[in-house]
Amino acid sequence: MSNSVKVGENLIGADAPVYVIAEIGLNHNGDVELAKKLIDVAAESGAQAVKFQKRTPAIATPEHMKDVPRETPWGTMSYLDYRYRVEFETEEYSEIATYSKARGLDWFASPWDEPSVDFLEDMGVVTHKVASASVTDLGMLRRLRETGKPIILSTGMSTIQQIDTAVEILGTENLVILHATSTYPLPAEEANLRTIQTLKDRYNVPVGYSGHEPGLQISIAAVALGAEALERHITLDRAMWGSDHAASLEPKGFAALVRDTRIIEQAMGDGVKRVFPGELAPLSKLRRVDG
C-alpha cells in the first residue's frame, strides 16, 4: 500500500478522500476577479484545492517563441509581452491566498523556473506542483526538493526513465505522482488509465490523475481504478479566449465530477464479501433454501 502525503490539512492516500484539485492555471486571463470566481466554483463544487501557474516570463518563455506575434484581447503583442500581461505577482497572489483560505481551499501553483519556486515559497504555498513540461528540468526539481514541501508530479509527455530520474531527485517520502497524457483535448485512446496502477507498483507513493479530456467519463474511471488525487482544469465558459479553456470543465461539469467522485469512493467498499443490511428483507422474501 502506498504511503499517505499530507498537503495542508488534507491527506492524499489510499485511506483518504480523493484530493480534488481545480486547475485554474492561466484561465484567469490575468484578472484577479475572474480568478476569485473560479475559486468560488472550486469551493462550491467540493474540491480541496485550486492550482495556478507561476512563471518568470523572461526565463520560462522559449527563446524561439519570445518575439512571435500573439493575438490577444488587448491587441497584437509579442508572446513574451503576452506572458507578462497574464502573469500574477505578489499583490495578486496575496489576494488569491487570502481568498482561497477564506473559501477553505489549499492553493498552490506549478513553478516553471527556479525563481518561481522561490516566489511561491515566499507566498507560503502548502505544496508545489511539477507540470508535465518540467519533468526534465532537473535543476528546478532539486530546488523543489530543498524546500522540504510535499511535491505533486505530473507525468505527461514523459518516458518511464524520465520519471525515474525525477523521482530519484525528488525522493518518495513526500511525493504524489499524477498520471497524465498531455494531449489537449485528450482522446480516449491516449488516456492509458492502467498506468495509474503501473505507477503505484513502481514507486509506492500516492498516485492520481490529471485529465485534459472534454468530458467526465475518463476521470470517473480513473477514480474507480484507484486514483487518489484528481486534477481538472476549470473555466467559467469553454468558449472564452485563452489556450486552456476548451480543454476545461465548466462549473456544472466540475460539480458533477466531484459529486460522482464522492459517490464512487463510497461504492468501492473494502472488498470483503458480506450480506449488507439492505439485503436482509429481500433475502427473507426471496431465498427458498438456506445454505
UniProtKB/TrEMBL annotation:
Xref: Pfam families: NeuB (PF03102)
The entry lists its GO molecular-function terms as: N-acylneuraminate-9-phosphate synthase activity
Membrane-spanning residues where? none
Q: Which GO terms describe its biological process?
A: carbohydrate biosynthetic process
PseI/NeuA/B-like domain location, by residue?
38-273
List the PANTHER family: BLR5971 PROTEIN (PTHR42966:SF3), N-ACETYLNEURAMINATE SYNTHASE (PTHR42966)
Output this protein's name.
N-acetylneuraminate synthase
Give the originating organism: Pseudarthrobacter enclensis
